[in-house]
Design brief:
alpha/beta; Rossmann fold; 3 domains; five-stranded mixed beta sheet; four-stranded parallel beta sheet; flat
Length: 299
């Protein structure tokens, strides 16, 4: 069987080990060298080009519900949390009675154990289900609804895991705390999240002054939303604006910057792209924010 292996950046160091193992089993193995931003970003172009029989995608849970033209096997990368370290968390949660608990796919297999520990220590724990995430309590960079769906009934959101990328997507209107179970560090991420929200408000304000819009369409299979892009174009033109559809697999700020007449981007791809306004040098609004802009624009 001809197999294409795909790894996110943090796991590419393990690629050769898995390739060698599959070769010993008699398979012809290729490794995708492209960037991989998540389970939404399948290497279908590479697989199609080499005539692969299957893609093995490491590090993420299944994201796309539709059957792909080339079969995809998802191999999750489980990392055990040292649960004994959670005792370090308890003094930080004084005054909190009820919390929304979330983590990433690497640790979600231990979520119920985390919940039991917290409940044993007198806390009420809520676990929600995201729109796109496979598991209860799992947050993605683009989907924090596992937290926001239950945060209204909680005093705060508690993210257990490493890094800031996933928890900064949690705009729940409640404090968001991050506990790293390996370093035992505890961080209040609320100010950073509020800063991102303020940045979004500023981008909308700047977009009000713009007349030429570039609507970004990604061809990545989990980000491809041409219908949304067509809707955005129609709505902006109805408001007397010029709008152009810009299609690319990799939405590179440097390449897009050569379309100098564009004053503002409407993003229909990964929603985290809108956080890179400094790189784009222009306002970047997600499609979900466009309705607010349209209501503010005078026809």
């Amino acid at each position: 069987m001809k197999i294409l292996l795909q790894f996110p950046e943090g796991l590419k160091q393990h690629a050769f080990e898995y390739a060698d193992r599959l070769r010993k089993e008699g398979h012809e193995v290729f490794i995708s060298g492209s960037s991989c931003y998540g389970a939404c970003d399948l290497a279908l172009d590479e697989a199609r080009a080499i005539g692969a029989d299957k893609i093995i995608h490491y590090g993420h849970a299944e994201f796309l519900k539709e059957k792909q033209e080339i079969p995809v096997e998802y191999v999750e990368w489980k990392v055990d949390v040292p649960l004994q370290n959670m005792a370090e968390l308890l003094p930080r949660l004084k005054g909190i009675k009820k919390l929304a608990l979330v983590t990433t796919v690497q640790h979600v297999h231990q979520l119920q154990e985390m919940k039991k520990f917290l409940e044993k220590n007198g806390l009420s724990v809520l676990i929600g289900k995201g729109c796109f995430a496979k598991y209860e309590g799992q947050v993605l960079g683009c989907d924090a609804t596992a937290a926001t769906s239950v945060a209204k009934d909680a005093d705060c959101v508690l993210f257990i895991g490493t890094g800031r990328f996933h928890p900064t997507s949690i705009m729940a209107g409640k404090p968001v705390y991050v506990f790293d179970p390996f370093s035992k560090s505890f961080t209040d991420l609320t100010p950073e999240i509020m800063k991102l929200e303020k940045k979004k408000r500023g981008a909308i304000a700047k977009a009000l002054e713009c007349n030429v819009f570039g609507i970004l369409i990604s061809t990545k299979p989990g980000q491809f939303c041409p219908q949304v892009a067509e809707w955005a174009k129609k709505e902006l033109e109805n408001k007397g604006k010029k709008a152009y559809l810009l299609v690319s697999n990799e939405l590179n700020p440097s390449s897009l910057g050569n379309f100098r007449k564009i004053e503002c981007y409407i993003n229909t791809a990964c929603p985290r792209i809108s956080e890179d306004t400094e790189l784009f040098g222009k306002p970047v609004l997600n499609a979900v924010d466009l309705k607010e802009l349209l209501n503010l624009i005078r026809a």
